[in-house]
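FAQ

Q: What does a record look like?
A: Structure on top, sequence underneath. For example:
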């Protein structure tokens, strides 16, 4: 799944709010994979590394297809690592105009269940060791073809 960033690197810049709210995991062919800094949920975003991308319609057909493939693979990684009850996948962009796709592992025990996570509770920032562990697990699973690792924090 991941590839070193090869294209759009000279023109790609991450929106400041996304940079503030998330931690870099790895670069994929089209997207940057980031972990949202909220320990209440395993929550990742995919951000296409293409400057000026606001809507999926700003992508070429090939880029859109790649986004869908990366989203599918990330969903499978998160299902394997976190074993959620339900995966929430959404691209809203109401607060941050840069195109990004949320992937949130949900549980009946999470603070917002069954409602959407937005506006339900304040972010619970990861402890440093837990953040490193989660990023490492995601990165390892993304680089692995087997997805055999299980991450049991939740």
């Amino acid at each position: 799944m991941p590839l070193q960033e090869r294209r759009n690197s000279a023109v790609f810049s991450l929106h400041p709010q996304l940079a503030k709210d998330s931690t870099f995991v790895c670069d994929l062919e089209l997207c940057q994979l980031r972990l949202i800094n909220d320990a209440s949920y395993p929550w990742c975003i995919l951000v296409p590394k293409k400057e000026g991308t606001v809507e999926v319609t700003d992508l070429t057909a090939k880029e859109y297809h790649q986004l869908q493939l990366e989203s599918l693979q990330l969903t499978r990684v998160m299902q394997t690592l976190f074993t959620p009850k339900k995966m929430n996948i959404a691209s809203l962009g109401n607060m941050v105009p840069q195109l990004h796709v949320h992937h949130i592992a949900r549980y009946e025990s999470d603070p917002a269940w069954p409602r959407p996570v937005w506006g339900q509770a304040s972010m619970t920032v990861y402890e440093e060791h837990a953040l490193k562990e989660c990023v490492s697990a995601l990165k390892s699973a993304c680089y692995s073809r087997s997805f055999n690792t299980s991450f049991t924090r939740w």
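Q: Is there anything notable about this one?
A: The two ends are 24 Å apart (CA to CA).
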